[in-house]
Amino acid sequence: MTTVPLPYRVTAVSEETADCVSLEVTPVGRALPEFSPGRFAMVYAFGVGEVPISVSAIRDGHRLVHTVRAIGAVTGALCRLRAGDAVGLRGPYGIGWDLDAAAGSDVLVVAGGIGLAPLRPVVRHVLNHPGHYGRLHVLIGARTPADLLFGGELEHWRRASAQVEVTVDRPGPGWCGSVGVVTTLLDRADWRPARTTALICGPEVMIRHTARALLARGLPAHRLQVSLERNMRCGTGHCGHCQLGPLLLCRDGPVVGYDRTRSLLAVREL
Amino acid sequence: MTGWPLLLESLPRVQRDRLFTLADERDFSAGSTLFDEGGIADRFWLIRSGEVALDVYVPGRRAQVVETLGPRQQLGWSWIFPPYRWHLGARALGAVRTWEFPAAEVRELCMADTELGYELMLRCAALIADRLQATRLRLLDLYTPHGSVPS
Ligand SMILES: Cc1cc2nc3c(=O)[nH]c(=O)nc-3n(C[C@H](O)[C@H](O)[C@H](O)COP(=O)(O)OP(=O)(O)OC[C@H]3O[C@@H](n4cnc5c(N)ncnc54)[C@H](O)[C@@H]3O)c2cc1C
Ligand code: FES
Hints:
The complex is a heterodimer.
Chain A: E1 6-17, E2 20-27, E3 40-45, E4 49-54, E5 57-59, E6 63-69, H1 73-79, E7 86-93, H2 99-102, E8 106-112, H3 116-128, E9 136-142, H4 151-159, E10 163-168, E11 178-179, H5 184-188, E12 196-201, H6 204-216, E13 224-227, E14 243-244, E15 247-248, H7 249-252, E16 255-257, H8 258-265
Parallel strand pairs in A: 8-9, 8-12, 9-10, 10-11, 12-13
Antiparallel strand pairs in A: 1-2, 1-7, 2-6, 3-4, 3-7, 5-6, 13-16, 14-15
Chain B: H1 13-20, E1 24-28, E2 33-35, E3 43-49, E4 52-56, E5 64-69, E6 74-75, E7 89-92, E8 96-102, H2 103-112, H3 114-139
Antiparallel strand pairs in B: 1-8, 2-7, 3-6, 3-8, 4-5, 4-7
Helix pairs in contact in B: 2-3
The complex binds flavin-adenine dinucleotide and FE2/S2 (inorganic) cluster (FES).
FE2/S2 (inorganic) cluster binds next to loops of chain A.
């Protein structure tokens, strides 16, 4: 694994929402080793800085898609990139979703906001491997209908047998779907707690509440995986910026079994 | 999950049957009003299928939807406490199938069978707590970049 960014070129840009874009990047020369769902790259916007961004799609092994939400200097610069621009990439880093552990069981994906980006490869993987998994439920929470990611693709997932439910916090005119927090969808979806592996990604408060709601409905803690974010600098387990108790999330995460992190998520300051 | 409405999940069968003797099947067509804010809360519903939007009337604007309820969920808790008036309005988003329960008779049943009454009230309290918690979480505006906290 290289710790020096390799040059990649932006080969496609799609605007997902007003503040979110998907960037397809292709290696200029040597490619990084293959990514798996849930792992991330340190993406370097030249002259601005470097941030951790998960893969939201993996195409032909080496072309990667990153879906980025502009919240600050680096993500803002990434969202302004155009096809042909250059970026630097290090990785793949971290531990991704344990899809082997989900084999044979139903899969429940719960995503909040940009949290759908690292879960998109999971949904695609499950849909591409019929017979390996049971039913697939995808529950998505977004702030408003306009903030919903991958809008066109959701219909595709539904047609390919996934049960996809969306809820928003604030409906706009014309929205006739669900309104409310994502946990409300748990009671309406016909999922089977005893046979399900659940994967959650979203804001940490949403993760905590969703995890509690899932356990209360009978999902065993060892069948729950969560993706946790902390500020990251090195990505390699050396600087300590991403520490959560005994874990360095760039190395031991971002995906962690809930049975391991449950108590850590309840601690106010670590 | 059993598929029972959440209010009745794991309720002993005898008690569930007793409650169901009061229930009527009632369907609503898309767009119909189940109740308006301030109206008399003399019944409640357990949703079998379809979605209901709860809204607040804001002068000069369209009614603002604050939450939607779907299958297995309970619609209405204002019937539990005086003055028995709806806090919000409710409209069917599509075709909605329900079991409708008359409030006064359910309250009488709860007084007569206090064990059932206690169970039902515990469940209604849990529902109210859930909705309160959900509302608080949405006030945090979690999905904005920094999960802003209202000041
Ligand atoms: C493992 C991992 C995977 C990620 N995957 C994605 C992804 O796929 N898409 C995506 O858009 N973002 C993702 N992020 C979040 C992304 O890294 C941050 O948004 C980014 O670091 C912010 O950098 P910035 O320079 O744009 O903003 P800054 O100017 O550094 O920060 C602006 C504000 O955002 C806050 N902030 C910084 N980092 C984070 C963070 N991690 N989460 C929330 N707030 C933060 C800062 O406190 C500051 O207030 C991921 C983060 C991690 C740790
Ligand atoms: S980011 Fe440096 S140790 Fe994790």
